[in-house]
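Following up on my earlier thread - several people asked me to post the actual chain instead of describing it. Fair enough. Here it is, all 124 residues.
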Amino acid sequence: MNGSAEWPETGAARPGRPVRGSDSGRPVMAALDLLGRRWVLRVLWELSQSPCGFRELQRRCERMSSSVLTVRLAELTEARVLVREGEAYRLTPLGEALVAALGPLDAWSRRWAGELDGPPAAAD
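Reply from S.P.:
Thanks for posting it. Predicted structure:
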């Protein structure tokens, strides 16, 4: 299958389509839209630790409703970031690359947090 036939309509962000805050269709905007959805980063984090089934993933993501988890899993599957094999969900190679790409953002956020604890930087 090629084209839109590969993408069932779940409302998941997709490059080439308008997303919240941008009509450009740029891939980075679609990725940020997807990552900005509630619980997405937590689901990615948990699956980066190890594949698991729905109930285990819901347990790991305490306080997430089953309906929200169902929607997020469908969106991430549609985006080809994760796949369901039998009863377990796991990251695809694309999902693993996404988690790795978040590493520099994690490093920056730690630096930012540290700088917020200190005196303000001097203006240039």
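Residues 25 and 81 are 19 Å apart (CA to CA). That should answer part of your original question.
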